[in-house]
Amino acid sequence: QSALTQPASVSGSPGQSITISCTGTSSDVGGYNYVSWYQHHPGKAPKLMIYEVSNRPSGVSNRFSGSKSGNTASLTISGLQAEDEADYYCSSFASSNTVVFGGGTKVTVL
Amino acid sequence: EVQLLESGGDLEQPGGSLRLSCAASGFTITPHAMTWVRQAPGRGLEWVSSISSNGDSTYYADSVKGRFTISRDNSKNTLYLHMNSLGAEDTALYHCAKGLRMGFDNWGQGTLVTVSS
Questions:
Q1: CB pair distance less than 8 Å for A34 and B102
Q2: Element (DSSP H or E) covering residue B83
Q3: Dist. CA A64–CA A38, nearest whole Å
Q4: Which of A56, A81, A99, B18 fits A60 for a cystine, CB–CB 3.0-4.6 Å?
Q5: How far apart are CA A63 and CA B86, in angstroms?
Q6: Are the beta carbons of A109 and A84 closer than 8 angstroms?
């Protein structure tokens, strides 16, 4: 149950696009199409942004998109806005019915 | 409105026990797997445990296996986490969340567990 690998921080200017990577193994990210992404503003409950690699829950902006290639999943935020500044976590369903999270990425809007 | 409200967090001594509760409102937990996720101070999210919709199957992170027990009472629309042999490493904000395989689509604000002498 090792954590997925995410960059500690990513930054971009308003209007730009950024991509956050999430690298695991064939026992988690690579083995299942059950990768999720969460937005977490400090002091608030985390919010599901992407599920099953690339699906957006109702109400989530289409500026958020997800993809996967091999053992690496990615979250892209396009048209970056000030309100997107937050911590972002990926997670993956894994073998033995467990779940593993990434270490989190702090997104800064310059 | 869908809500999950955790309670039971407290200051506890090393080796002690606590029981966390998560009361759901605005929906019924009966058809859903439910999960506990924690966040230690200054750290990221960590999956702790999940339970199937009928409670027959339970799953644990290696870090809590043998010490924590997840359970549910669908008639009370409530999820529980029984925590034994607590250590400093268990100090965290504990969130309950709806879901498992397909992600966690509703979360509570969390209840704080502090383990210290």
A1: yes
A2: strand B78-83
A3: 11
A4: A56
A5: 42
A6: yes
Does the beta-carbon distance from A36 to B109 stay under 8 Å?
no
In this complex, the residue of A57, A93, A101 whose CB is nearest that of residue B105 is A57
Tokens found for residue B77: 């629309």
CA B33/CA B80 separation, integer angstroms: 13
A14: closest CA of chain B, how far (Å): 26
CB B88 within 8 A of CB B115: yes
Q: Are A71 and A25 in contact (CB under 8 A)?
A: yes
pLDDT digits (tens, 9 = 90+) for A14-55: 999 999 999 999 999 999 999 999 999 988 999 999 999 999
Residue-level pLDDT at A43: 84
